[in-house]
Amino acid sequence: MKEIFDGFEKLKTSRREFGLGSDEVLRCIKTIFEYSLQYLNSCNRIELKSKVEGKRYFAFKSEKKITRAINSDVYETGLPLADKMFEAVRRRCFDELDADSMTAACYLSAISYCSAVDLLKSGDQKTPGTFFEYFIGHLYSRRLGIDPKKKIDVLNLDMQSTLPTDFIFDLGSNRAKFHLPVKTSTRERVIQVWAHQRLLDGVYGTGRFIGTLACMAETKTDKKKLEVVEICLPAQWRLYQMYIAQMKRIYYLDMPDAYGRLNTVFPKIPVMPFGHFFSEIDSLTQ
Amino acid sequence: MKEIFDGFEKLKTSRREFGLGSDEVLRCIKTIFEYSLQYLNSCNRIELKSKVEGKRYFAFKSEKKITRAINSDVYETGLPLADKMFEAVRRRCFDELDADSMTAACYLSAISYCSAVDLLKSGDQKTPGTFFEYFIGHLYSRRLGIDPKKKIDVLNLDMQSTLPTDFIFDLGSNRAKFHLPVKTSTRERVIQVWAHQRLLDGVYGTGRFIGTLACMAETKTDKKKLEVVEICLPAQWRLYQMYIAQMKRIYYLDMPDAYGRLNTVFPKIPVMPFGHFFSEIDSLTQ
After folding, report:
1. Interface predicted TM-score (ipTM) of this complex, two decimals
2. Entry pTM
3. Beta strands in B10-148 (DSSP E)
4. B residues 147-206 near A, CB within 8 Å?
């Protein structure tokens, strides 16, 4: 499946040449998705034993390898919506699909490439992460109408340096700046996200950067037992939110219930399916 | 070299059964070190091209594999001192060797096991990290006379939870508590260390936990070119120290000059060779 990897190389070049929010980048993402899906459709599917209440998972299989766990319902929901989602993104008409449809179509597109790589390469964690970062970054770029930066200047009396960051979308003076970390899954390293937000709050002033984290899922597959669990640390997230910094949104393509429940505690952490981003992002700056 | 891996299994058991600061753990560490050194002495040494000013590095080689970079001077200095260091640690007579001798002997002991694993296993990053964590944790335990905890209770009005942490050494009421993260190298993930310190400061009050980070080195080896560089981000450390939390000490077994220079800027970050820990740790609580 040379086309998938050629597509990924072209995606990297297009991002550099035309910018992350460009039509060229969108075309690459769509092509990569289509070839990935075509490849996966040539593989067998196996049901996984889901230990996650209310969710079913499956995986694709090729010889001895199996992919990461795929949420069956979200995947199936996404299948007839992918073309419509790409078209909506291309025309920047984000209200043509509702939040759940957007979430499902984005989930399908992201996980198809990641799963293809799971089968076609060995131990490659990096390109799925990079693809997902570009994909989410592209959607933010299209929606906000600007390309992101990945570093910002720090000016502090006699110190002068550059701070490398996750994506920063700067809407201009007197307008919001978005801080967007992107992770396929978080685990114990997620404290970094809150720490980067705190650094931005400290260096530039609280409220200047609106932190929104975008994640794919928190599943973990036992490849011998063919069992899927979700690994969530909600109590720790609450401590991070109270003692390190405030994240304005946590978006998921396959949202764990354990994090969804953080919307109902006090003080709450707003965790939502990613599709809501498209309609609510403007209101987050108010 | 079955003895090395058997020794490591026994180390894990001894830690569970007798505690990290126990004589049994010390014996395991010493045995692992001795077998590792014996194995390495049967391998060829190759000089690496050091791009680090003022430092020479070499590696051991076995068939097609080479070890991580080893600081030649510190390693050679450590060779005649290892037995004396282990004996000083056993008898808790830490002033028998000066700080540089302690640093060198500890460096030799830690890097010998890590290098043996580099040659004997493929892609095993985890056991070198665990061994190093146990080794440094053991030295703290012997020096402070108590075993560490790896989690602490959080009590906050109607919330009750447990926070998993790096090593915490609690000297008891009205005395200091040490927060000890241990890393073989730090890179961009080091922001976690400051974030954990901030969490402890926030949850329990600033000043209650004294943060000391212990690291081995910051070298990176290009295994094709056989070149060694150090990867350091001192400007970012300064931002972490100013905007996230205050670390009281950063100890290194092979200290990069770029971080050593942080002692000379204002506000300074105290970065020191690890051997100083043994004599100065009591004064850090004042």
Report:
1. 0.89
2. 0.92
3. 44-47, 49-50, 57-62, 65-66, 70-71
4. 154, 156, 159, 161-164, 188-189, 191-192, 194-196, 198-199, 202-203
